[in-house]
Amino acid sequence: MRYTHYLLGLFIIFLPVSACASSNQTAPQSLLTFDRQQLEAAKRYNQTHDGVSLLIIHRGEILVEDYPNGGAADKAWNLASGTKSFSGIIAAAMVQDGLLSMDEKVSNTITEWQEDDRRDITVRQLLTLTSGIKTPRPSLLKRTKTYKEAIASPLLYEPGSRFAYGQNPFLVFGELVSRKTKPLGFADPLDYLNQRVFKPVGLEPDKWRRLRDGNPTMAAGAQLSARNWALFGKFLLQEGAWEGEQLVDRQTLLSLTKGTAANPGYGTGFWVSGDISGANLDRGSVTLNATDFYSDPRHLQVPADFYMAAGAGNQRLYLIPSMELVIVRQSKLRFRQGGKKPRPRFSDIEFLSLLLDL
What we know:
Layout: H1 2-13, E1 25-26, H2 36-48, E2 51-58, E3 61-66, E4 76-78, H3 85-96, H4 123-127, H5 147-151, H6 168-181, H7 189-201, E5 207-208, E6 222-225, H8 226-237, E7 241-242, E8 245-246, H9 250-255, E9 271-272, H10 286-290, E10 307-311, E11 315-320, E12 325-331, H11 348-356
Antiparallel strand pairs: 1-3, 2-3, 2-12, 4-6, 5-6, 7-8, 9-10, 10-11, 11-12
């Protein structure tokens, strides 16, 4: 019943959807500003690269909705690191509520940091992964188990000088959110996000993984259907406004898609369009291995306001505000092949090139 009610709401939001597409269908040519061949090419590429969901929504109209390889409209999939983008939205809501400044010191709230060299790290540095604290690369074997463990991370580099991708900064932020919002009656960061953003928008995650200490992991673990993730994309395109109400601080939300000097290709939980050629990134960095977007010259032809939430297994939420374009692409999250043939390697730039005719 929950999904039935939600799907009706989604189709109202994206009117005139009934005239555009239904599951496993491409929109009629008369309604497209995209060439039919471009849409079909992107659809086939997703199908042959282990995709289970594909939603392409342009100017509020669903042009392609497809659920191959065991996918379904009401089936939720693990977003993996696509979850990270929600922390920035929490921050924007807290700015709106007068609870946070992006440039305040984390140690104002995480007082354990006041007596050592982490005292001057800002919230912005924490969420752009430039805080300088020890941040192990993503690993199934070395996951941080609690917020307390993340808070104990020592400083390795001068804040703002290096980009280090991993979960610890987001878990520290989770504890910061908890300390600021629990006195207001919120159970945890996920409860705050649900009350402030998800419920007003009509979005309900299917699941959200929790750590050993019972706290929600802010770095990975949210499970959403393609339609729910697309709804979040619509909220982003509307710059945090919903039904005439500004739910989060607009300027903070817009800042989430700005890169840093340490990594112009990463904002706050989002990979963004940026020239990383001069960034201090080692060749084995997540930036260069999570996506091929920056390594192919065709990325220069993608509109400059492009950004994406991305997770392991090539979970993708692509957004191009200037085109009013939201794209969701999901696949089964598998870390072992189990004797099967290797899965075909998904390419962000190849998919976007087929769709945008680069």
